[in-house]
Amino acid sequence: MTMKRYILPIIAMAFLAATAEAKTVTLRVDAQAAPWRTGSNPKLAFGLADARSPALLVDTALLPGITLHVTATGLTTTVTGGGSYGPEGQSDWIADRGMALFPSYYIEAKGRVAHLNELVGAFVDADGKVVGKPFLIGSAANVPVPDGAAGLSLGINDDRYSDNSGSLTVTIVIPEAKVIVE
């Protein structure tokens, strides 16, 4: 009898501590996509206003405190007939905080530089307003979801979008929330 009292709670705790499968979502980010809508974010304006809408992931699994794993592949060009660059952008063209026409002007690069045509992102609320600070992604990044985020907005770091071509394939792994009962 005593053994039954202990086995059942142990089985229940092991069941509740198990983590569900992560969710994987793939988005296409057009080379002409802005990383956020400037109309919803007038204090985060950039470029010549010729960009397309960002690629947007809206999912109820985007819970505050979880960390998304974002990876990207593909090629974009920065000018018609120009060279092609991966998600890290054009390595010989630094488009950092000193250049107000680029989205990266608003990004804290944290020890690295932002490049022309690099993949960048921002969390947004239900109205499209940026929540927290925009961030660099490049070919891979782990990004924590902030309070108030309803979606992840993705685009290219550029000032003139209409002459860009190509696209990036972005894979986002959303971990399932854990419930641990002790």
Characterise this structure:
The protein has 182 residues and is mainly β. It has a single domain (19-174), classed as Sandwich (Jelly Rolls), CATH 2.60.120. The protein has one helix and eleven strands, in the order H-E-E-E-E-E-E-E-E-E-E-E. The protein has one helix spanning 2-17, and strands spanning 23-30, 55-58, 67-77, 84-85, 90-94, 115-116, 119-124, 130-136, 140-144, 151-156, 165-174. Strands 1, 3, 4, 9 and 11 form a five-stranded antiparallel sheet that branches. The chain has a four-stranded antiparallel sheet with strand order 2-10-7-8, with no helix packed on it. A hairpin with a 6-residue loop joins strand 3 and strand 4 (84-85). The longest helix has 16 residues, at 2-17. The chain starts with a helix and ends in an 8-residue tail after the last strand. Mean pLDDT is 87; it is low at 3-19.
Task: Sum this structure up briefly.
This protein is mainly beta and 182 residues long.
List the helices and strands and how they pair.
Elements: H1 2-17, E1 23-30, E2 55-58, E3 67-77, E4 84-85, E5 90-94, E6 115-116, E7 119-124, E8 130-136, E9 140-144, E10 151-156, E11 165-174
Strand portion, in percent?
Answer: 35-45%
Would you give the CATH topology? Jelly Rolls
Which sheet architecture does the biggest sheet show?
Answer: 5 strands, antiparallel
Derived from helix and strand composition plus strand pairing, the structural class reads mainly beta
Helix content: under 10%
Whole-number mean pLDDT: 87
* N/C terminus separation: 22 Å
Query: What's the architecture in CATH terms?
Result: Sandwich
The SSE order reads HEEEEEEEEEEE
Computed Rg = 20 Å
CATH H-level superfamily: Galactose-binding lectin
CATH class placement = Mainly Beta
Number of helices: 1
- Total domain count: 1
State the total count of DSSP E strands: 11
Shape: globular
pLDDT < 50 stretches: 3-19
User: What oligomeric arrangement do these chains adopt?
Assistant: single chain
